[in-house]
Design goal:
Strand order of the largest sheet: 3-5-4
Largest sheet: 3 strands, antiparallel
Number of domains: 3
Radius of gyration: 26 Å
Oligomer: single chain
Number of strands: 5
């Protein structure tokens, strides 16, 4: 906002950013759960950790937060600071459709948003405009190939729309680029990613494993616990202390006939009757007491010895 010369409207006493936790998963001075911070040594699994690189912000990054960030920034570029269309501002209109052009009752964002980006190019040359924005938004890290693509996109949008629309377009494209989201100089390999092999269709009946990526951590022992008739329930109660679930807070699960279990009965939290029902119908199973340690580690070698499982990443 500072780089693109944000200017508040006169009716706004202070600038507030709203719904950041819902949009991007984190907010200044707020730590509602374990996912709202990240460690400087964190490395995302895959190519990042294999290249011995770190990616701290990737610890709180997922598909919803990526889309939420882009929605918020695109709304800021198009409409100024507002809540409309995923924006990070306060509510300034009862209905965001008033911002849509051609409806007869459109509202001017200049008057109804809490502030606008006032950046204006110092040159009419598309190359100069892209270079200027590359300095402001990426610190000059934008590659020559990316700059050429942006110059072409600007020229095409000028033909299809106007210079103002073209300027907004390349701002969005630049904010979506790796250069904006990194602090180091990077080099493109110019190589296309290989196409994945087409999987062979199975002749077995369809089955699926569904993963729920929850916005926060789930305490397994606050969901699945030993039944009160199980010999290890007291061990559970002693270990959990005052936060242990009491028998009247639990729903029974019959695990008779399942080999390798310490009990024939378990329990789930009383607010999860759907889980109990699915288990009783044989449509749900539990994989409990899971960890991701591949082998014993120490502080100085855990990353090297656990490059396949993203230790500490809440996977």
């Amino acid at each position: 906002m500072r780089s693109l010369e944000f200017e508040a409207n006169g009716f706004s006493q202070e600038i507030r950013m709203e719904r950041l936790l819902e949009g991007i998963g984190q907010a200044a001075h707020v730590s509602p759960n374990v996912f709202s911070f990240f460690r400087p040594e964190y490395a995302a699994p895959g190519q990042i950790i294999e290249a011995s690189l770190t990616s701290p912000e990737a610890q709180v990054m997922n598909a919803p937060t990526i889309v939420g960030f882009l929605n918020g920034i695109f709304s800021l570029i198009d409409l100024g600071l507002t809540r409309c269309y995923g924006g990070f501002g306060n509510k300034s209109l009862n209905q965001c459709k008033h911002y849509e052009p051609g409806r007869g009752f459109s509202k001017d964002p200049e008057k109804f948003s809490f502030g606008m980006l006032r950046y204006s190019p110092r040159s009419t040359s598309s190359e100069d405009i892209v270079d200027d924005l590359a300095i402001l938004l990426t610190g000059g890290r934008m590659s020559a190939i990316s700059r050429a693509s942006l110059v072409a996109a600007y020229a095409s949008e000028v033909d299809n729309s106007d210079e103002a629309g073209a300027l907004r377009l390349i701002q969005k494209l630049m904010i979506s680029s790796p250069g904006f989201h990194s602090t180091n100089v990077f080099h493109s390999t110019d190589l296309l990613r290989p196409e994945p092999d087409t999987p062979v269709q199975s002749e077995e009946p369809y089955k699926a494993i569904v993963f729920f990526n929850l916005n926060g951590g789930m305490d397994g022992f606050n969901m699945l616990v030993p039944h009160e008739e199980c010999s290890v329930y007291q061990n559970y109660a002693d270990a959990r202390g005052f936060i242990a679930l009491q028998p009247n807070e639990l729903l029974p699960l019959l695990a008779t006939g399942i080999t390798g279990q310490v009990c024939d009965k378990f329990s789930v939290h009383k607010k999860l009757p759907i889980v109990q029902d699915l288990f009783d119908r044989g449509q749900l199973s539990f994989v409990a007491n899971m960890g991701i340690l591949q082998q014993p580690v120490q502080k100085d070698n855990w990353r090297k010895l656990h490059d396949k499982t993203a230790l500490f990443a809440h996977k």
